[in-house]
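Students often ask why we bother encoding 3D structure as a string. The short answer is that it lets us treat folding as translation between two languages. Here is a chain of 188 residues written in the first language.
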Amino acid sequence: MTDLIYRQKEFSFLNKEHSKMTLVQSLLRLQEMAKEKNETGVRAAYLLASYYFNISAYGYYRDVPFYFVDNGFSYAHFGTSVSENSVPDFREAYNYKDFDWYVLLTNDAAKALPLYEYVAEHSSSPDLQARALFMASSCVRDLYHYKEAKGKIDSYYSEIARKYSRTDFYKEAKNERKYFDYYIKNEF
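And here it is in the second language, the structure alphabet:
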């Protein structure tokens, strides 16, 4: 699905490629902008949520915070719980050697979910509200087992179908996400 919010002029500091330093600077700037109580702040919160979701264990850029050589879903992920958001304290005796073979996973989808919910509640754009609810459903799907998540995902999809069926995003999601289309056809 097409998401072009980052191309808006107030986010011109976001580039297609970042060094570690410019990435951190951009994230800090987005955090500051997200504190604003206006539409720019809401869109900045959406971009932060998208960053967190995309570097989560299920996101496209899940390799960014780790030392993986590719973007493959490493065998080390299988059977690993990603629901814990704890990071070891590396302040003592931390260096770039002596890493264990375990994979350090933090579930950044847990950071993205409240941001997406905030955007859905505070945006003045119906299209962005629908997009945020859809992404919140993706976070819930990734954070919880199917039985636990189904009711919450259903509530997000139902709200999108009831309130936002005339938006461009709804049409795009219905055409590109077959599970969403299936839900719409079978639940209403």
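Translate back mentally: The chain has a mean pLDDT of 80. Keep this in mind for the problem set.
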